[in-house]
Structures are given as structure tokens and as C-alpha cells.
Esterase (Mesorhizobium mediterraneum), 293 residues
Amino acid sequence: MSERLISTPALIADTTVHDLAPAHGGDPYRIFLHVPAKPEPPTGWPVLYMTDGNAVIGTAVDAMRAQAGYPLGTNVEDGVIVAIGYPVAGAYDPLRRSWDLGPPPGKTYPPFHDGGPEVRTGGAEEFLAFIEDELKPWVASRARIDSDRQALYGHSFGGLFALYALFTRPLAFQTWIAASPAIYWEDRLIDRFLQTFEAAVPDGLRMQVILSAGEYETEKLAPFQIGAADEAKRLEHKKLTRTDEFARQMAERLGTIPGLSAGFELHAGENHMSILPVTVNRAVQAAFAVHHP
């Protein structure tokens, strides 16, 4: 006699999903909100904000839960995770993220595919204003947040956005994780914001910045890329992006600023996409490091 199997959805623990439209109108963001099912700390929860929410939320929650259960061995405690994504089925919405994560003024590019819309960049200030002015108060209405323990994570274009946010609103977060940041983008447009930041660093700054790249974001190809049909094209593209070199240089430059602790991490065996879960975990470890008042 066969036993009938009943399928139920596998859910991300203690995580809810909300489609939140900006106050000025426009398409909604899909907000993944994780609040630990535990009593909140006296000072409120530390919080980690993440771009590309659809792609990172499950990894972030499970990385935190696995480590926060053993704080003496991991130095990680529980916290709130806010992953900002889009109402799509896949991991990314390439068109919207190009606009949201690209520093202004931006440019217009050909469609991603035939018949598609043009790709625009330059909406980072608008996106950052949504996070600061609308999303943070919305989160605070659902969980008590420690305003002195806020972190921002972004990967690739999201890493570029994290740097833009750091340079334009340096007091918005205390911990910044820019994984494989696209510093090269649009002839290093990010440098103009860096220079403005350096010219007027806020007094009493206390922050941590982590930049990173994968071993195969250097001049090296991954073993599976050697001899592939696109080998020459990849090698040529590496001369443009120079992800590890630019991120390392950025960390060294930021490390000279008083009150700012900056470091660069090179992750062995990782390429531009495989580095995602590795750096999500590093963001969890940085954002939720055990707090000793």
C-alpha cells in the first residue's frame, strides 16, 4: 500500500514578504523582512540591509541562524535582515536594478534583448532616498532597531551602490560591505563622489568598510574558463573591470580616513557570481558581530 505524500512550501524562517511602493509612485519593491522570533535586545536589533534581495535573502537568514545559535564559537548574534528586491520570480530584475544601483547622472544603453526597453542607469540617489526616508521608518514600525548598528551589503552593481551610499550619506550605516564592486563603471564615475566625501568627512566617524573580490576576478581565469570559446573576450574584459585591483586600492585609500576602518578580502576559488553566498556570509558576520557594550 503506497503512502500519499503531501507537499508543502519550504519557507524562509521568520521571514515575511511585502510589496512596498515608493510614496511618489512607481513600481513596488519586494521587501523581505526577517525578524528573529526571540525577545529583542534592550537597545534594539542590529540590522542588515541588502540589495538584490531576491538573490540573497535565503542565504543571509540561514547563515545568521546557523551561527547565532553558537555565539561563543562564531561571534555572531541574531539581528533583523531587510533584503530589497523586486516582484519577480527570478533572482534579479536586470532592468530595474540597473537604474536603482547606478550612480547619477547615468547613461542609456541598448536593450538587454531584442525588442526590450533601453537600459538606463543613474537612479541611485532616488533609491537611496527610498531606503532612508521610507523603508527605514517602515522597518522601525515592525521591529525595534538599534540605530547605531546598521549595515548595508551590495554585490557587483550593488557593491558600487554601497560605495555611492557611503560617500553621499556616510552616517546612514556603520558597516558597509561592497562585494566585487563595479568601481570601473562609467569611467570610474564613483570617484567624483569619493572626492566630495574626502573633502568633508563628518566628525566623529566610526565605521567599518569591507571590500572584496574573487580569485577569478583577478587576471586569472577560472579553470573551467580556460580554453572556452569566450576565453579571449573574458581576458579582454578583465583589463577593463580590474575588480580586485580597484577594490584593493579603494580599501587602502579609505583606510587613511580617520574613524574609518577599511579592508580588502580576496576569496579563493570564487568567480564574480559564486562569490555571492561567501560575501553574504561575511556581511552577516560583520553586521551581527556580538556586541559588547
